[in-house]
Amino acid sequence: MAEFQRVRVHYGGAVQGVGFRPFVYNLARELDLRGWVMNAATGLWIEAEGEPDRLEAFLERLEKGHPDAALILTRETAWLAAAGYGSFHIRDSDNSEAKTAAVLPDLATCGLCLQEIGDPSQRRYRYPFTNCTRCGPRFTIVRDIPYDRANTTMAEFPLCESCRREYEDPADRRFHAQPVACPACGPSLDSTIEEAASALSSGLIVALKGIGGFQLLADARNAAAVARLRERKRREAKPFAVMMPSLEALRCWAHLSVAEERLLTSPAAPIVLLRPRRKLLDDTSPYLGAMLPYSPLHHLLMQAFGNPVVATSGNLSDEPIAVENGEARERLGAIADVFLTHNRPIAAPCDDSVARVSRNRTSLLRRARGYAPMPVRLGMDLPRVLAVGGHLKNTVALTIGRQAIVSQHIGDLDTLETRRAFEQTVERLCRLYRFTPELIACDAHPDYYSTRWALRQGAPVAKVQHHEAHVAACAAENEVRGAYLGAAWDGAGLGHDGAIWGSEIFLCDGPHMTRVSHLRPFLLPGGDIAARQCWRNAESLLWSLGRAVKLQKVLAQRINCIETTSMGRLFDAVASILDICQENRFEGESGLRLEALAAAGAAGSYPLVMTDGAADPRTMIQALADDEGPPAEKASRFLNWLIDWISAVVAQTGIEQVVLSGGCFQNLVLTDRITGRLEEQGVEVFTHQRVPANDGGLCLGQAVLAGLRAQRG
Ligand code: ZN
Ligand code: ZN
Ligand code: FE
């Protein structure tokens, strides 16, 4: 018999009073599943436990067979450890969610609205701002609660007679749809879709005002246009996402699993990283990040153009996405040749979300449009904590009772624009949820902008170590209970000892975390530049083996050298020695290349030496440097060495739950292999699903640890 698993589903929207709970109850009983179904203010929560095959069937039938009258607006699924439920029952409603019900995420255009804009007999024929109760903008138009038209950016568009009739008719699909609009009364474009499509055809760059901000578009098949976009955006090699005209078109470009199709066509409609079928023109990544049109404006433009377009955030590298017309013309004027703008204001920036699917599970790499601000359910009640996240890929979180509201992706807090966006996001979330924090949680790094901001607020502040926060975030979203081992592997975070950490393994129980293993520290010659120049890390490790290197003197005299246990830098060193990446042109490039290479590799590993709980990378590097096998085998053996290490720590401690967090675990070859190996040993492995493994997930862990520690105070 297959091992039991538990799946949690959250349906957001109006799903109550339509027979949804009895439907779920009967379906679960029929499939012999245990668990519960419960109404809450944000929608409906379901937990079902049983054999994995039956759970898959359950999910499939939930999607297809739910009551027609249910208005499902969002859906998120998470796989958890079995809880040992005895039967299936209908639980009492959860009333703790009252205030968090206010704001929904933006929802991709529904099938009915799509039909309507394609039908010449309809008054919304080809109208780019068509929406209804089931679809359209939400989070990005809300200025305040309650969620009424007057509190949204639609306030400046009084309803015409026809729209008002629909809005007031309980039998209509647009009954109380706050953003309802038509060509007579709603927002309008400042130029035509045909002009934008023909600009794309001529190789020009188009700035399009989308749902959560401006996007920059270029013909994905036109190498010169894409190169121009890269150059103007000062984006050297970081992969671009592509918007495909349709699912059918996308099938020609990438391999799609059922789960990937479900995600691409879901109301959140994120960018999904896929395995490409054909070589792309702009070939900087082994994956294809693709999405489908998600607003009527995108649908109409993609129909007019008919081919894939590169679609990237309207900003310079690492700045927040531009949202206002004037601001966009100023900031994007030197990048875009043509603007396609409109007069519906955007209340807050919200980038496209990015997700991956592995072993049928979704993991988010960037949580933004379509997901924010849906609550992440926690296993415990927490005080009101505002967690301000890290410095890079910043996000912030609020905890309200048993749930955390995690903000959309904000960006790297290096520029004035991003810092302003950070402050506006905190202010807006606190206003929308009528939230005053009892406690502010931040990173322990004194130079992070978010930390400095937290210390200026005058509220009590709790500093949370970076890697402890990573691990706590993953444990929280998976509701891990009891003792577990938490691995946090990433590029850099300030450690308790003042060194730069990044390969930590903690023994954890609730708020208590003890560092039980890490890499033996090595030197970063040049400090921060070593994060870009992979070869520096290779030199440092080769030098520590007594080999002659260029940076001999720098390393021997420790000139501008700092100590680190960073896993990211070890990936850099290995990628440099394998000569697949000497310089990271974008964050994580060395890891991405190693992953792609190792995927084809086989078994075998390098010798593992542990001293005082630390794994010594030198013996591994020595063996790697002397290995005469093909690069794919070497890459694979390096990953296997990491897995040997983690499974040795598991064996030593006898702990049977392992949590994986930190940017390195975005590497699916590594994550899937560790999971496979540990599961063979009877260990349960937890990975991120709803919040990112990278620093975009830090705020959740900060909030949970600070909250728990304050409670035990
Ligand atoms: Zn609709
Ligand atoms: Zn109207
Ligand atoms: Fe990190």
Q: What's the CATH superfamily of the largest domain, by name?
A: ATPase, nucleotide binding domain
Structural class: alpha/beta
Distance N terminus to C terminus?
A: 45 Å
Instruction: Report the sheet-strand fraction.
Output: 15-25%
What CATH architecture of the largest domain would you give?
A: 2-Layer Sandwich
As a whole number of angstroms, the C-alpha radius of gyration is 25 Å
**Tally of separate domains:** 4
Can you describe this structure?
- The protein has 713 residues and is α/β, with parallel strands linked by helices.
- It is 32% helix and 22% strand.
- The strands form five sheets. Strands 6, 7, 8, 9, 10, 11, 12, 13, 14 and 15 form a ten-stranded mixed β-sheet that branches.
- α14 packs across α16, α17 packs across α19 and α19 packs across α20.
- The radius of gyration is 25 Å and the shape is globular.
- The chain starts with a strand and ends with a helix.
- The relative contact order is 0.09.
- The protein binds zinc ion (2 copies) and fe (iii) ion (FE).
- The site of fe (iii) ion (FE) has 7 residues, from α13 and β21.
